[in-house]
């Protein structure tokens, strides 16, 4: 059952990949005999059906893994992040159903793919539930929160499309630079996956011995070559050695390893970005822009807003209300200012501010799109950084 | 007319909010000792048995001043003030001041050995289950309450007391 | 009071932008821009008075801009507070004044000095939350009531420039059946009002109240949170209870009496070989993974008593199993499994033996929480306990003493009496520390130890929960109501032999346009043009 489950996940991943390519193709300029609109519509439909098929396959992964493990597979970082990617796809299916915009698929599907690939970097074993997680609220709270975050992510996707479409690319400005930074960061995630996958395939390992702040001897194993070593650490083997030591104020014994991986991601992202720029010979966003010229900015703006309008209540219900009910049962209090709780609140407040900007102060279009980008950064921060950097009660997922 | 009504309405609403917020702030930030017995409170009545197996009930001492001390044999500051307490107990017992030295959660053997070593003659009620300790909201020990003849707490301190302080305390609660 | 009289005869409150009745724009009348339909152009109350200090405070909080700023400041402060752990999450036995500096260096020290270590309970954070609450109340009052008025008194026939300056607008020559139009609109769930052959079709007006409903929910929620600080609303206590012990549950004393709890057994289960589905993960961590923490208890109740400590008469309420995620609830209270201590020493068995022959003359069982002073073994054999140190250590003068009253490292001084040694021999017995006179003929030796588990339970009462829950439900209803529906209106008017059509929605124009497309296909009505498109194109 567990094997069937991971096979279904691979299949879903591949179908998503194909769907992405199909959506990208539907925007291409190569007009054959048929007219442009019909071509776009036809391939858009194909991409949409593929997305749904992929989603069904991933749903199959979810159900079979649930059967194999005996609990909803949302209990560790691999399972949760995979599920979050699946909810992004679901949200995309939902919004494409309303607005039928192919460009949404070109961006939403690869970002969902990145999320799922990122998830597969975490340990994939079926893990038992500690007592605190043994509750029906685990599935209710986590799935609803992930769905909310998935829908809110689509607002980022639409916002990004809006920005690429409208930001003036004739000269280099702050806005074009920001857009390129977003592109670069997306490539960094890709870079992280590439580096981790290559190292894993090569079976690379190097380990360090060092004394941590609590005066305890720790052995730390890196899976990628060490650019950054632990403070005052000695390498146990003769692999490529660290160039510098990581700052000693970083928290937790795993911090040097995480910091090293982080540096690798930034570097690989940089290399990838450089290669893409060399090929395109212009800014990435500038290269994409012409493909989007048929798109009405108002429509994309509305998709972005609609995603927030749909996702905000779902997020609030899952990440705050259900979370509070569970926290009252498991931790004796519905609210305890745990970092993950605080970041859920910050996400909530941010989107509340977004809605007020939009409804009461008339922030439409570009300003609103930039806000959606920031919103996605906050969601990602809560998803990744809070778990990996800030320690708290939610350290397992 | 309507304008005036509006002003009144706004004023009332703002005052209500200000009072509610003020109270919340006060009780949250400046007053976190809720649940424990404080100076000015009525001392909660309790019943325990002492080392000799006699029943000790606080309300039996109505009309007398009570020097109510919570302590443990392992606590050095408690140990330091015991001889002074014993000394002043001798002087003030006749004047209507009683010492109740409630031991927090220890066994009779330990307490008895301790009492013998320091020749303590005042009643030592044993709070094995710490119920009384909890009811009084004791944090660190030693903690001493001065209970006057009406059963009211007129002083609370968590310091190790000097002979002089104990003496002045005795004077305070002398009926 | 100053009013603005519109040409239709309606008196509008000062500050109104669009006449409440006919919809004629009252400010920049001659502009051709689309009108701003926010709050229906009704006068936001605060903008009308600004004289007394009360009005000034009111006006400050009435601004949505101020509200947004409050949200953003809370957001940033809350984020900073998560950089390092809050004081409540650092180890309990460390001093925060030095902890932050030692653990996190200078940034940690700054964090501490600025008070971020206790951010969420600090006066200024609470004041920010209070400011948010005040803003919610005042903003809602100031905008909700005028909006209600405006939507209640809207007239079917609107002013010419109101129509022209709507985003969706078209003019066509008459010649279609108005009955058919009405039928189509009704089919789409529009409510239709008529006046002189003009039509106002409207649906989902209730979604306009969404923001006010969710604000009300939030206010109730905040009131609930505030009530926690009022006496009697909230209890939070910890109870350590050993197996076999019966104790009063702290914080549960009421006028009807007091609850007591007996802990029969504390159970900890680990995942093991039987849990095959997890074997891969378990092998990898190598550490035991807990499966269950559970206390089997009996709850008792005793009648009222004014005296603490007196032996009460216990009435059994029920048996229960308290697990993580499954608290025991009774009355207003809940008991949660929060912590435990395994294998605490409870009883120690020692034998009186002849040193030379090793012969035993009987065994004593010392209850470490309440040892006896004399243990008589019969036949003239007797052991006296001279000293007892539950948690033995040597103090700074190398004198034996005890760390506290918990028997983690028990040690004793015994005096042993036998028919042979009637004066008694003294021996010090501790764990791996025995001191005795060399010429002693008898000794005490360990023969066994009994341990018990200790369970830590949290006692909780929170009478604010119902209010918090109601606030949460109202908030959710309001948010859904406001965001999942949109308020749509279509005006159709006969003017100078032409048919004027205008349409408005508070959001989601794409959906409205699609619906208008449908309506025009079914009824023959001309499809209105999106005037904002024309402008941008």
UniProtKB/TrEMBL annotation, chain A:
Which processes are annotated in GO (biological process)?
cytochrome complex assembly
List membrane-spanning regions: 6-27, 48-68, 80-99, 104-122, 142-164, 184-204, 262-280, 303-327, 342-357, 369-390
How would you describe this protein's topology in the membrane?
Multi-pass membrane protein
Q: What is the protein name stated in its UniProt record? A: Cytochrome c-type biogenesis protein CcsB
Cytochrome c assembly protein domain location: 75-185, 266-394
Q: Does the keyword Lyase apply?
A: no
Q: Which terms are listed as keywords in the entry? A: Cytochrome c-type biogenesis, Membrane, Transmembrane, Transmembrane helix
One GO MF term: heme binding
Pfam families for the chain? Cytochrom_C_asm (PF01578)
The protein's organism comes out as Fictibacillus solisalsi
* Places the protein is found: Membrane
Q: Name one GO cellular component term.
A: plasma membrane
PANTHER family reported for this sequence: CYTOCHROME B_B6 PROTEIN-RELATED, HEME EXPORTER PROTEIN C
Any signal peptide, and if so, which residues?
none
Automatic annotation (TrEMBL), chain B:
Cite a single GO MF annotation: antioxidant activity
The identity of this protein, by name, is: Peroxiredoxin
Report the subcellular localization. Cell envelope
* Alphabetical GO biological process terms: cytochrome complex assembly
Q: Which UniProt keywords apply?
A: Cytochrome c-type biogenesis, Disulfide bond, Membrane, Redox-active center, Signal-anchor, Transmembrane, Transmembrane helix
Chief place where the protein resides: other
Quote the InterPro entries the UniProt record gives: AhpC/TSA, Thioredoxin-like_sf, Thioredoxin_domain, Thioredoxin_ResA/DsbE_sf
Gene3D superfamilies, per the entry? Glutaredoxin
The source organism is Fictibacillus solisalsi
Pfam families linked = AhpC-TSA
Q: Which domain of life is it from?
A: Bacteria
The residues that cross the membrane are: 7-26
Domain Thioredoxin span(s) in chain numbering: 37-175
Does the entry feature the keyword Secreted, yes or no?
no
Q: Which PROSITE patterns match?
A: THIOREDOXIN_2
Give yes or no: UniProt keyword Ribosomal protein. no
**Record's GO cellular component, any one?**
cell envelope
UniProtKB/TrEMBL annotation, chain C:
One term under GO cellular component? membrane
Sequence intervals crossing the membrane? 66-84, 123-145, 212-230, 465-485
The reply on keyword Membrane is: yes
Compartments reported by the entry: Membrane
How does the record say this protein sits in the membrane? Answer: Multi-pass membrane protein
Which coarse location class applies to the principal site listed for this UniProt protein? membrane
Q: Which domain of life is it from?
A: Bacteria
Q: Domain ResB-like spans what residues?
A: 64-516
Which BP terms from GO are recorded?
cytochrome complex assembly
**What keywords were assigned to this record?**
Cytochrome c-type biogenesis, Membrane, Transmembrane, Transmembrane helix
Name this polypeptide is given: Cytochrome c biogenesis protein
The species this protein belongs to is: Fictibacillus solisalsi
